[in-house]
What does this fold into?
Amino acid sequence: MDRSPKLHFWSEMSLCLLGEASADEVTHCHHHLIMDSHIASSKLWTAKEQFRTMTHTDYKYSLLGTGDDDYRKRPLLLQVDQAPMNLFAILEVKPELPRKWSTPGWFRKVRLCGVLLGLAVTVAVMASYVLTGESKDLLLTPSPYHHSASPPGPFALNLTSVKDYVHLQTVVKSIRAKVEISEGRRLPEFEALVRSEQHMFSVIPRQFLPGFRNPCWHEEYTGANHSDPYAANMYGQYSRSFLAVVHRLRNAFPKHLLSRDGKLYRIRCLPYFYIIGQPKCGTTDLYDRLQLHPDVKFSTFKEPHWWTRKRFGINRLGEGFHARYPVEDYLDLFDQAARLIQGSQTPNRSGEPARPDIVIGEASASTMWDNNAWVYFYGNATSGGEPPFLIQDFLHALQPDARFIVMLRDPVERLYSDYLYFGIANKSAEDFHEKVSESVQVLDGCLADYTLRSCIYNTSVCNAMPVRLHVGLYVVYLLDWLSVFGREQILVLRLEDHAFNRKFTMHTVFNFLGLAPLSQQMEAELNKSPASNSRRPADKNLGPMLPATKHLLHHFYAPFNRKLAQVLRNDSFLWGADP
It folds into this structure.
């Protein structure tokens, strides 16, 4: 009997049923069916129970072994009439060497009849699940936007097989054919922005204090001098670093109040610049090195995520919505820097800044791309299913002169680094390939009915992708930012250039922000500091991604990289994109 891994499960058993099997082969069937009939029923019950407890984000497509795997490790995918039962549970058949039987011939015949009866029962059970619709308890439920086509052959889900790779290449070609990278979008009216966020616009003025480089203003303080202005700040519930700073801010608060015409005022500031993205592109290292400049101060901690998450009540991804953080809580994060700009106040002082050249930064790496919460708060979408407002619309309405820094890297490498950083258990190059394949098909399914912008700003689609494939579509996000801000207000850097020559990158940033040159001592400190937030040793041991995964992702990102290079007029952003 042929023991090839591709041998059809039913053809192997049919030899026994038709009486064409040798004595050893009959013994093999007999041994298999006695053991596997119990195992199959047990696994079937376990699979059904596990499926009932699965959520829509818990499913995983089964990654079968490669062509080099041992037959004992390779599962067989059940088929009906040569058509693969796509996404069905897999029955593992582990062949063993036949045993010699010393029992009399009549007893073997009796046991053979029992084997055939057991086989018939097993086939009937499996057929009933297939033919009566009860198979839904065996299905691994796909994403709502999963690509419907499946490659032919008995190993339809083997993500490392040649047939599957060809299929995935077809999916990527389908995406590239559907994608239209638009450079224009309909901008919302200012009045519509105000109506959607009335409290925010009532707190932040349209004009800022003269004589300050940083956008600041004086806000009337109506509380008592001895009261705690930070007692209700919601960041204090989750940020230990904020709580550590609050104690000092609270004790020094009264002496920083400005008295004028019988009223007390506190200084408030927004950031002068924002590091807006992208995650796993070196933003932490840039943040750490910028802090070495004496005229640069940041929020209490690196990533408040207020514009993208906290103002909507998202504390941690996956936890649902909580109470929304008011804009006052966000402004509290800049109080420490604001007091350095202002200096200590004395009664009736004019309020002129003590250090007017200080600029404040904020470095939430989600600001550039994460607009997924809009659907829950901003009502109807545009005609194409796209968000009516984006983060940059509000920022432009409040701070038309703000500056933004973007750090990018090869999106293929960014995605793998993202996977290694956020993955929890069982990380491997094979698992990464499986998740990439799944994500590509989710996006392709969405693009069949919606625009690219509506898909990458869609919460359901983004949550359905097990890796953040969409974050690497840099040009789509950048064009949306350029729709409201001038090109001179956005500095786009490459991590590859920063890693090669940090001194040059930092001088580019200093010039962009209009900062004074550093002293020689500070220059030396700037260059000798080690890279921040580099890959963990355990992740390095996993090695690189599979060559097939890398090739697939290069092909996927190529048209977006070409468009990015055109927009920036810099071919280094091609990252080896194919012509």
